Amino acid sequence: MHLADGTRPYRVRVCGTAPVVSAGPFGIATDLGLEALSNADTIVVPARNDVTAPTPDGVIEALQAAHARGARIASICAGAFTLAEAGILDGKRATTHWLAADLFRQMYPDVRLDADVLYVDEGQVLTSAGASAGLDLCLHMVTCDHGTAVAAEAARVAVAPLHRDGGQAQYVIRNRQRTEAGLGEMLAWIEHNAHRELSLEDLAVQASTSVRSLNRRFRAETGQTPMQWLTGVRVRHAQQLLECSADSVEWIGREVGFGSPANFREQFRRLTGVSPLAYRNTFRARSA
């Protein structure tokens, strides 16, 4: 794509420490070595497969030098680990893929990690969550550089929704932690019965324990109350139906166990950051 004056908005080059760098099962040919980072205006650091593996020689130093001279640096997904290793996220707000959030906090406690958003713009340094959030971040940078019209054209070419705000949730309901066998059976029961009208007392009876004991076990093993867990399961089931069915939002809310459309919308927005309808429209736009 081109700007109104016929020029290209960016000149994109792929840099690395070798002629071909690994990206999961794929190999990506590089145009230039790390020396190209010395005069790049924007540097985008991709995700990495093993965030505990040593970073290739020269990468950290090149990023530190680029940051010191004022280059804009962005990371996609677990690429935030590379930026954190370079020290350029210290004291800053950042995000990464939610699956890697706990490890990130352990490794880099000086970074203010927010794992509940799509991307974070700290000015010179930007970070995104999972792969699709990386596209959102890139479109955000295009908007900042060249305006909404150019970003809209880029989104059209990429078959992507133009605007998903960085503060929007990652659409992930985190209720799949590993638990002990006893509670694991209870969680499986909730998974298959979440559509029913269930009270805390009903859950305690099913678990053959007291309400107090059930609350204590849930908090110890999941960090949530039983009813919070149940709500998360229902919202996750609703997400699946919103993505793949044409049923009405009201019907889906009832089907997954919410007593009223208002409660469904409230709980869905609380856990995902968007309304059920906005969530559905986003996924329809992606599949169009």
From TrEMBL:
KW Endoplasmic reticulum (keyword) present: no
Domain HTH araC/xylS-type: residue ranges: 184-282
Domain of life from the UniProt record: Bacteria
Residue ranges crossing the lipid bilayer per the database entry: none
Pfam families, alphabetized: DJ-1_PfpI, HTH_18
Stored InterPro entries: Class_I_gatase-like (IPR029062), DJ-1/PfpI (IPR002818), Homeodomain-like_sf (IPR009057), HTH_AraC (IPR018060), HTH_AraC-typ_CS (IPR018062), INH-QAR (IPR052158)
Protein name per Swiss-Prot or TrEMBL: AraC family transcriptional regulator
Gene3D superfamilies reported for this sequence: 3.40.50.880, Homeodomain-like (1.10.10.60)
Cited SUPFAM superfamilies: Class I glutamine amidotransferase-like, Homeodomain-like
PROSITE patterns for this protein: HTH_ARAC_FAMILY_1, HTH_ARAC_FAMILY_2
SMART domains in the cross-refs: HTH_ARAC
Keywords attached to this entry: DNA-binding, Transcription, Transcription regulation
Upper taxonomic lineage: Bacteria, Bacillati, Actinomycetota, Actinomycetes, Mycobacteriales
One annotated GO molecular function: sequence-specific DNA binding
